[in-house]
Design goal:
Elements lengths: L1 H17 L6 E8 L18 E4 L1 H4 L8 E9 L12 E9 L8 E4 H7 L7 E6 L1
Parallel strand pairs: 1-5, 2-4
Antiparallel strand pairs: 1-6, 2-5, 3-4, 3-6
Length: about 130
């Protein structure tokens, strides 16, 4: 019986070691309003409204163009709206560049921001991953 317990423990440890760990980066999000074209990545191509502009933190010399990010609000950045988060997440496509001086890690379209937070907050803390 002792061998069975040890085998069970070894299988459990191996399973834990092989389970992928989801990694989410943290940052801030703001939003911008239409028109969304032209964009730095796609010119006058209409990419819909679930889009974002990347700051220098993720822009990577245009390599961010076309990347899809899942973004979730984690809380307020100020006391203006104490509980801005909706509890939802949104998937956005990077189509633009938020130039130096950008107020956030990722600048979401107004529509994408509204999915995850109250737009009256203006700026929120987020978790995001590709």
């Amino acid at each position: 019986m002792g061998v069975d317990i040890r085998a069970f423990i070894l299988v459990g440890i191996a399973t834990l070691c092989l389970t992928p760990v989801a990694y989410a980066a943290t940052g801030t999000a703001t939003f911008y309003t239409p028109p969304y074209v032209p964009s730095s990545c796609n010119g006058f191509q209409n990419d819909g409204v679930m889009i974002a502009a990347a700051s220098d933190a993720i822009w990577d010399n245009r390599a961010a163009c076309g990347r899809m990010y899942s973004v979730r609000c984690t809380g307020p950045t100020n006391g203006g709206v104490p509980q801005p988060c909706t509890g939802q997440s949104v998937v956005v496509k990077v189509v633009d560049y938020c130039p130096p001086g950008c107020a956030s890690t990722i600048d979401l379209s107004q529509e994408a921001f509204a999915v995850i937070a109250d737009p009256n907050a203006g700026k929120i803390n987020i978790e995001y991953n590709q």
